[in-house]
Design goal:
Distance between the termini: 25 Å
Order of helices and strands: HHHHHHHHH
Oligomer: single chain
Number of strands: 0
Largest sheet: none
Number of helices: 9
C-alpha cells in the first residue's frame, strides 16, 4: 500500500512489512536489470475492503456520524480505491508480460479479463492496446483490429495506439483504415522515425 512510503502512527509492524516489499522490489529490479525482466509492485491508497469498511463504520458509531456510508466518507475525507481496479491492474501487468514474453494468446485472455474486471478504469486503453497486440501476434487480425479501434476511440491521439491501429488494419485487409491511422500519427508526431521507435514504449 501507500503506507510503504507514508506510514501512519498505528500498526508499525504492518507498515514495516510494506516497506520491506518495496525494498525487495527495488533490489530484484536492480538484480534483473540486464535480463529484460521487470519487477513491479502495486501501491494503492486506502482500498474499500470489507475489513476497512467495518473499521470505519465502527468509528462512525463512536463519533456519532450515523451509518450512511456517503456521510461517513465525507467525515473521513479519504477517497477509497476499488478492489476491482487493483485486480484489473494486476491482470494487465501479467497480460503485458505474456504478450511481450512470447505467450500472446494467454496475454490476450488475461487482458480481456482485466477489462471485464473494471470496464471504466482510466487506463483501459492500454489494456486494449495490449489485447490488440496479442490478437495480432496470434494472427487473429480482425479481432486485433477491433481491439485497436476500441483503444483509438478511447484515446485517439496516442502514438502507440495509432501505430497498433495502422498495423492491425493493414493485416486485416483494411488499407484505408491503415492509411488514416498512419496519416493521423504523422500529423500528430511529424518527427516520428522508425529508428526512433523506442521513444514510444508500449
Amino acid at each position: 500500500t501507500i503506507g510503504s512510503t507514508q506510514p501512519n502512527a498505528r500498526m508499525p509492524h504492518y507498515y514495516a512489512s510494506k516497506g520491506a516489499l518495496v525494498n525487495l522490489t527495488v533490489s530484484l529490479m536492480l538484480e534483473l536489470a540486464n535480463t529484460g525482466i521487470t519487477v513491479n509492485t502495486i501501491s494503492p491508497g486506502l482500498i474499500k475492503t470489507r475489513e476497512v469498511e467495518e473499521m470505519y463504520r465502527k468509528r462512525a458509531q463512536e463519533m456519532g456520524w450515523g451509518d450512511d456510508w456517503e456521510v461517513i466518507e465525507r467525515h473521513i475525507m479519504e477517497e477509497f480505491g476499488n478492489p476491482s481496479a487493483l485486480y484489473a491492474i494486476g491482470l494487465y501487468v501479467q497480460g503485458l508480460a505474456w504478450v511481450f514474453g512470447g505467450r500472446p494468446a494467454e496475454g490476450l485472455d488475461v487482458c480481456i479479463r482485466a477489462l471485464q474486471a473494471n470496464p471504466r478504469m482510466v487506463m483501459n486503453h492500454r489494456m486494449q492496446q495490449v489485447a490488440a497486440l496479442g490478437a495480432f501476434l496470434c494472427d487473429r487480425h480482425e479481432e486485433a483490429l477491433d481491439w485497436a479501434r476500441r483503444a483509438a476511440h478511447r484515446l485517439p491521439a496516442v502514438a502507440p495506439t495509432l501505430l497498433i491501429l495502422a498495423a492491425c488494419a493493414a493485416a486485416a485487409g483494411c488499407p484505408e483504415d491503415a492509411t488514416a491511422a498512419r496519416d493521423r500519427l504523422l500529423e500528430l508526431f511529424p518527427d516520428l522515425r522508425l529508428e526512433e521507435m523506442r521513444r514510444w514504449p508500449f
